[in-house]
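Q: Make up one entry.
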Amino acid sequence: MDATLTETTGSAFQTLAGLRFSKGHGTGNDFVLVADPEGAHSIDAQQVAALCNRHRGIGGDGLIRAVPSRFLPEGRDILAANPAAEWFMDYRNGDGSLSEMCGNGVRVFVHFLRTEGLIDLPVGGALAIGTRGGLKTVVRTADGYAVDMGPWEFIFPGEATAKAMDSLVTAEGLEVPRPALSVSMGNPHTVVALAELAELEATRLYTAPAVEPVPANGTNVEFVVPSEPLVHDGVGSVTMRVHERGVGETQSCGTGACAAAVATRHWAGAGAPDAWRVNVPGGVVGVKFFAGPGGHEHVELSGPAVIVASGTLS
């Protein structure tokens, strides 16, 4: 097994020799980043898994290829509706599987475009980008980036409305299955509320929690503990850990933080705030709800983005 892994990783790296890359993170959610302005690089699932391997590769929760939208069918569809979306975030999970979106990844992606000199985005400026989760608009703030993540929706709306839960989640470290609420942020999430931080710390996320019923394309699973008090100075607060589909436990998950705020606000009922602080192992992100076009409520995710290193594969 180990020899096979070494052979596979070595072969993947040989085919990518000379490729320039950077390493970045958003509140600890880390990524390998590749600039591909000419659409010349085809990085397959096996190569992504090798690059993201933490022992034999660069290491990361996923890989982001920055490529002009015109080079991808999904990007061309977005360009047809919004010609300003010049750049596309071609994102794969750490195991090589395609993913619709990554909220922390979007911030790191735009910061990478800036550091590579591919865009000019002053503080207060906005950038439209393409993702497999649709068009996203990113605003540069004084201390990071804020992303319009688009509208949210319940994956099982009937159950969510009637019972405020739609599934049961079983995880190592928790004695019994827990009720949960499934939320789509362009990608699927299942949110579990826990009573106290000790329960959150005891939950073991080395293996994927079992979700029943599981959404059609699998799901990311968030475990959240509401703060006490839940709301302070008009801002709600929760602490969260997450098991990401195709990755495992990560230090942060942007779309997961949004889903956690959606579910907690729903459970809190009338009068719950529209601004939230989500504490994750890698730091803190902000979530806000606002009225979007067509009467759909949108979610804004804000937080930092950092590039920590750059290099060339040998």
Summary: The CA atoms of residues 9 and 56 lie 7 Å apart. The two ends are 24 Å apart (CA to CA).
